[in-house]
Design brief:
The chain is mainly β and 367 residues long. It folds into 2 domains: 152 residues, Cupredoxins -  blue copper proteins (Immunoglobulin-like, Sandwich), CATH 2.60.40; 148 residues, Immunoglobulin-like. The protein is 12% helix and 34% strand. It is built from 5 helices and 21 strands. β2 and β3 form a beta hairpin. Bound molecules: copper (II) ion (CU).
Length: 367
């Protein structure tokens, strides 16, 4: 007999099923092996390897290789040396771009010339400490990790070996970003397509360089020698340097990022360790994915945006005036004194309607 109670329970079960998220379709090894593969050569920031904004065809396996390099890096114009640790030789590591549903297959190489084990934790990946538990490589080893790009957005990756080694490796330079684009590209808050003419990747780093009794930055022979002193400065939580692209001035003057009036630029900004607040002086964020997650609609017309430590965000802006724009961490002490300033050099015609110096500076008239 079919009772009223059974009918209610049946309805409840159906409602529960309907409320459950749809189970994603997971592929087996045979299906993954049948996918097309693409090898991508990474490029050093602020540049990003060539990619299509809308996916061409179905999901594929995208192969990347990164070689870890432990090396001294000059981080300011006074010649201060960081005992650096890098993914692929650059601070930050290179930005990878794939589409949702693609597989990332990374070969991580730790050459015998290095002195320490390293690994990689992808905030974009699911399981095993973001891959960190499956990628620990000693000097002289390499490892291959595959993960499925299931969530869209900009995500940090970083080295995460063990205990106090984790923050030390991160503030020595071992972080970068992956961007996972929706298959049909970026969209505005109405779901209409957005595209960019150029993309730049700005990675922000806080460094903690020990000083001697006279207050001068200390130099060390190697990483091991620098470790104890550096850890003491780190624990004070006051960085000696806050920089873009690994060094004060790495993106200013001759190294400015270039654009033209009318061009739309996507700026991806990461900070693996500490909060920051990018601001484009004289411009705006037309569309900003502050948390860097493309499933959420972008905010519009932002003056400053907030990047949480341990994340990457993306801002889209169409330049409307020529000139040099400073792009800063709008803690202006960090921007000016500690190094967190970049430049955009924009060419094109000035628009008097948007701004005009109606009268040049001159003496105050007397009566
Ligand atoms: Cu490491």
């Amino acid at each position: 007999m079919f009772t009223r109670r059974q009918a209610l329970m049946g309805a409840a079960a159906a409602a529960m099923l309907a409320a459950m998220p749809p189970m994603a379709a997971f592929a087996n090894e045979t299906e993954i092996a049948a996918l097309p593969r693409e090898q991508v050569a990474l490029v050093a920031p602020p540049f990003v390897h060539a990619h299509s904004q809308v996916a061409q065809g179905g999901p594929k396996v995208v192969e990347f290789t990164m070689t870890i390099e432990e090396k001294p890096v000059v981080i300011d114009d006074e010649g201060t040396v960081l005992q650096g640790m890098t993914f692929d030789g650059s601070i930050p590591g290179p930005m990878m771009v794939v589409h949702e549903g693609d597989y990332v297959e990374l070969t991580l190489v730790n050459p015998g010339s290095n002195s320490m084990p390293h690994n990689i934790d992808f905030h974009a990946a699911t399981g095993a400490l973001g891959g960190g538990a499956l990628t620990l490589v000693n000097p002289g080893e390499q490892v291959k990790l595959r993960f499925k790009a299931t969530r869209t957005g900009t995500f940090v990756y970083h080295c995460a070996p063990e205990g106090p080694m984790i923050p030390w490796h991160v503030v020595s330079g071992m972080s970068g970003t992956i961007m996972i684009l929706p298959r049909d590209g970026l969209k505005n808050e109405k779901g209409e397509p957005l595209t960019y003419d150029k993309v730049f990747y700005v990675g922000e780093n806080d460094f903690y360089i020990p000083r001697d009794e006279d207050g001068n930055f200390k130099a060390y022979e190697n990483h091991g020698e620098s470790y104890a002193d550096t850890l003491e400065v780190m624990k004070g939580l006051v960085p000696t340097h806050v920089v873009f692209n690994g060094a004060k001035g790495a993106l200013t003057g001759d190294n400015a990022m270039k654009a033209r009036v009318g061009e739309t630029v996507l700026i991806v900004h990461s900070q693996a360790n500490r909060d920051t607040r990018p601001h484009l002086i004289g411009g705006h964020g037309d569309y900003v994915w502050e948390e860097g997650k493309f499933a959420n609609p972008p905010a519009k017309d932002l003056e400053t945006w907030f990047i949480r430590g341990g994340s990457a965000g993306a801002a889209l802006y169409t330049f409307l005036q020529p000139g040099v724009y400073a792009y800063v961490n709008h803690n202006l002490i960090e921007a000016v004194e500690l190094g967190a300033t970049a430049h955009f050099l924009v060419e094109g015609d000035w628009n008097d309607d948007l701004m005009k110096q109606v009268e040049a500076p001159g003496p105050i008239p007397t009566h």
